[in-house]
Amino acid sequence: MNKIRQHRAAQLLSGLLMTAAGAAALAQSPDRVEITGSAPVRYDIGRSCPSITAELGEALATKVMMYGEYGVTEVELSIGPQGIAELQTKGGPRVYRSALRRAVRQLDCLDAYTGQRFRFQVAFVSEEDAQASQALAAKPGVLSIAGR
Q1: Which strand (E) or helix (H) includes residue 83?
Q2: Which residues pair with 118 in a beta bridge?
Q3: How far apart are CA 43 and CA 70, in angstroms?
Q4: Within its chain, how far is the Cα of 53 from the centroid?
Q5: Mean pLDDT on 98-104
Q6: Does an H or E element contain 125, and which?
Q7: Helix 52-67 to helix 97-105 angle, to the nearest 10 degrees?
Q8: From 10, 40, 134, 143, which residue has the greatest number of CB atoms within 10 Å?
Q9: What does the DSSP assignment read for 18-63?
């Protein structure tokens, strides 16, 4: 039993020495900085693209009226120096997907938000349900598009 304790103590000491040696090696290279990850996702797309509701409404309302399919599409994008840099859409009616992507790529967003990532939802609703969806649209990150 004494030998087991000695062996465990030796393993612990060896681990501590390796950790200390690694920390000392890192401390010797102060000019190296590593940063990983991406910018946090924002949900206030209306701040960066102030006319988003009007722009998407104009681009999509006729299609919503024509096809009459309703649902919610999740959109994630990043704003680059030339406009919308990355764009992903998930869920919702497939019939609107290409029109939605095209409309989002043409959004007029402020340059101050270059490099930022945004996530929001576009709710496709009937004209009758548009009034009820106003409560949903008041939440950050939710836009409501009704057929006209």
Answers
A1: strand 83-90
A2: 42, 77
A3: 22
A4: 18
A5: 97
A6: strand 117-125
A7: 160
A8: 143
A9: HHHHHHHHHHT-TT-----S-PPEE--HHHHSTTHHHHHHHHHHHH
What's the token pair of residue 56?
Answer: 């998407």
CB 126 within 8 A of CB 81: no
Give, in order, the Cα–Cα distances in Å from 15 to each of 10, 18, 22, 142: 9, 5, 11, 51
Of 134 and 73, the one with more pLDDT:
73
Q: Per-residue pLDDT for 21 more than 90?
A: no
What gap in Å lies between CA 127 and CA 129, rounded to an integer?
Answer: 5
Structure token digits, residue 15:
């681990």
| DSSP three-state, residue 112 | helix
